[in-house]
Fold this protein.
Amino acid sequence: MDFGNNLLRPGPALRFVTNPPVAGLDALLEKAMDQPPHLLVCDDDREIRDLLQRFLRQHGYRADTAANATQASKMIDNGRFDLLVLDIMMPGEDGLNLCRRLRAGSSLPIIFLTAIAEETDRIIGLELGADDYVTKPFNPRELLARIRAVLRRSAPEPIASFDHYRFSGWSLDPASRELRNPEGAVVPLSTGEYDLLMAFLDRPQRVMNRDQLLDLTRGREAQPFDRSVDVQLSRLRRKIEADPKDPDLIKTIRGGGYILVSDVQRSPGH
């Protein structure tokens, strides 16, 4: 069977053949960390959980599974995970509500698994702070590629000579990805929100349209008609603007795009 043409589908017909781990991207990720990334797969379908766990482990990752949101919450509270693969439609608490709870105080990267027809759920998931999504049925290789991309984007930045940003009383330390408000409180950012904020901080007082922002934040992973920038911008404004509906920091330029109007100071990290 040609694995490249095989889709992962729920139900008794679920089968796929795995190839040996692909060297390169996994090796680079592992080298950048003390040990391989630790992934959690939360899905109420046992067959999907078990097959994804085996597939991810064969590609060099540590992978655990949870059958529902309650179990996943306990595992996240008691251990350290680098990324959560989360099914949206589950009995009891669904994936959207779990994502909402996690985003209240965590920047854990989240990739949603969602039915192909549920476009509304995908948009809501991004609005809640998910980093990406994969639609069912899916090829496990696509999920693996998206996991790699999100892990790359969420990895700590190398410490540069000038790596601390200050703007309008706010501060951001890229080495720790820690954003603090003018009162000094930490404001958690999802990977997408962080990428978007960095794009603005590196180009203050410069108008950028959504295609430029999409290229800066997602690059080759961007898809045609990708609306993730709009969703991430809305979330970012809710976190850093006094009035998100009438923003003072990130302005909308009619027919042009968006601009960070604040001055940005860069200073050596500590």
In short: DSSP finds nine helices and eleven strands in the chain.
